[in-house]
Amino acid sequence: MKENVWNTYEEEDLKKIYQLGEDYKIFISNSKTEREVVENSINIIKSYGFRDLREMIEEKKSLVPGDKIYVNNKEKSLALFIIGEEDIEKGMNILGAHIDSPRLDLKATPLYEDTSFAYFDTHYYGGIKKYQWVTLPLALHGVVVKKDGTKVSINIGERETDPVVGITDLLPHLGEKQMKKEASKVIEGEDLDILIGTRPLKKEEEGKEEDLVKNNILKLLKELYKIEEEDFLSAEIEVTPAGKAKDFGLDRSMVMAYGQDDKVCAFTSLKAFLKVGQCKKTTSCILVDKEEIGSVGSTGMQSTFYENAILEIASLLGKKELTSLSRILSNSNMLSSDVNAAYDPLYSDVMDKRNASYFNNGVVFCKYTGSRGKYDSNDANAEYIAKIRNVLDQNNVHFQISELGKVDIGGGGTIAYILANKNVNVIDCGVGVLSMHAPWEVTSKSDIYEAYKCYKAFLKDMD
């Protein structure tokens, strides 16, 4: 185990760490869904002079070094580029993070009443321990799109005056049978229904006696948002823990927040990308959706949206041949900015202590993810890792290399293999996390700072 990095900092470093922590808490508190991350990120990058690629294509504008471009892919993924001094066919330096997190989603027909309780029916998204989601204050985030195309934003539960919703649990006095179940069965997926109301409409107001509580909820939704029950058919509403990110620990050395996998790496990647600005190589930052369910769909990393964006940019740089894409990707370097499981002394039996990542030991590199016999993994080559080590040492970045638990225990995946399949040099690199995939996750402020330093160094100095 390496030296605790807090012991290496001067007073000036400490000021930067705590300021970065404050910026991070604001960002993640206001960016609980992928749509919110994209919207908030675009608001930030526009102040840096970024322009929409679609506008530049329409204007047939030729690109020059220093130009800043963004691609908003269906409001749920984002690709950023800053044109470098070198020919783009010599490759790019890329940071890639995902911005979706485990959560609950409302089903297409979510609203129902049972015994004068109104509920939203849900379908969990990504890998969760279902029992962790009961009795928490929960918030509703998302959009409802009406048939005429009107888009209604939903955000209930985050403001101080907002109500919250939640999932009830069985009292221990009657829970003997429940407590004998396996943890995965204590709460079933179909029981993760959100209690949203108990007050009925007056019978004379409704004219009938059935579903009076449900209909009162519909009345409220119509008054507040002008939406009808059938509008849920074209809605994307996510259920997240309600509340802001907080300092964690009496020494305020950590952050507790929802969705740190992987928004902690999205934040540090974006901040580093904007801070570095124009470099010798063209730089890119990708913030993508759907990693938690396999990077599928049009907004996931397996979509062609990123390759299409590169082709369009190459064309505006005068590269008209399809072969440019393969040359660009083959000569590119990438950090798959994704979190790792930090060593937890309370659960040491699943960790290989010699190859685990530790809080306050710096940014974490994972040579291969996947599971067991390295199945479904990207295995970064030694030459690439050596180059990265050299860059980090030159920039005084504290780092560690780890695996995700013991070999036969489990494993995990990231977006790294997808770009590796395009012949890009890729390695996973991010922040260690405690309680990963829980409603509230914990990270170290020192590791967040070292990740930020690492991403800056990589973009600026990686050949």
Instruction: Tell how many strands the DSSP assignment holds.
Output: 22
CATH class call of the largest domain = Alpha Beta
**Whole-number radius of gyration?**
24 Å
Distance between the termini: 30 Å
Domain module count: 2
Unreliable stretches (pLDDT < 50, length at least 5) are none
CATH fourth-tier homologous superfamily of the largest domain: Zn peptidases
- What percentage of residues falls in helices of 4 or more residues? 25-40%
Strand order of the largest sheet: 1-2-3-13-4-14-20-16-18
Estimate what percentage of residues fall within beta strands: 15-25%
Quaternary structure type? single chain
The CATH topology of the largest domain is given as Aminopeptidase
CATH architecture verdict of the largest domain: 3-Layer(aba) Sandwich
- Which class of secondary structure composition applies to the elements? alpha/beta
From the spread of the alpha carbons, the general shape counts as globular
Main sheet, how many strands, which sense, barrel?
9 strands, mixed
